[in-house]
Design brief:
alpha+beta, Metal Binding Protein, Guanine Nucleotide Exchange Factor, Chain A, 3 helices, 12 strands, 37% strand, CENP-V/GFA, metal-binding
């Protein structure tokens, strides 16, 4: 049966769902269908910010980034992220520090030209880039961080094949903004 999606709101520390009156089974189906979109819009848990370090495979490019120990990363399936299998988290540009290797970086742009895909011209690894979704931020490849500072990674899906709808639905734009 066709039901309208439940409305969701965060009240204090609780997630409140307002579900249209219906049978119990239909109610459960309605909530289950809406839950992924609701979870993607939940604000990240405020956590102590630490300094992570990382870089490319050959270590010619090195950086530091201020971010929580628990990272919220994005698994995107756009044409380039799909080919690279890139899972990344996004921070404001002011929380990213390139320590070494600017001269070893090459840049690739395509499509709209907004995203700046930067990679090491020695080993080819893209440790970070400036994403189309957050041109004022920096997307860090999770697997390019040095071990020891990350406690966990929550991976959220971003449908890069339907970029506009996913951008509007996921809340990704807020990732490069200061809290």
């Amino acid at each position: 049966d066709a039901l309208e999606a439940p409305a969701a709101a965060i009240v204090g520390n609780a997630l409140v769902l307002v579900v249209p009156e219906a049978s119990a089974a239909a109610c459960v189906r309605s909530v289950a269908k809406a839950l992924p979109a609701i979870v993607n819009q939940l604000p990240a848990v405020k956590e102590e910010v630490v300094e992570h370090a990382g870089g490319c495979h050959c270590k010619a490019v090195r950086f530091r980034v201020r971010a929580p120990r628990h990272l919220v990363a994005w698994d995107c399936n756009c044409s380039i992220c799909h080919m690279k299998k890139n899972t990344h988290f996004i921070v404001p540009a002011s929380d990213f520090f390139l320590d070494a290797g600017e001269e070893n970086l090459s840049e690739y742009r395509f499509g709209t030209g907004v995203a700046r895909h930067r990679f090491c011209k020695i080993c080819g690894v893209q440790a970070f880039y400036h994403p189309r979704s957050n041109p004022d931020g920096v997307a860090i490849t999770v697997h390019c961080l040095d071990p020891g500072t990350v406690s966990s990674v929550e991976v959220r899906k971003f449908d890069g094949t339907d970029w506009g709808a996913s951008y509007a639905a996921t809340g990704i734009a807020a990732c490069s903004k200061k809290a």
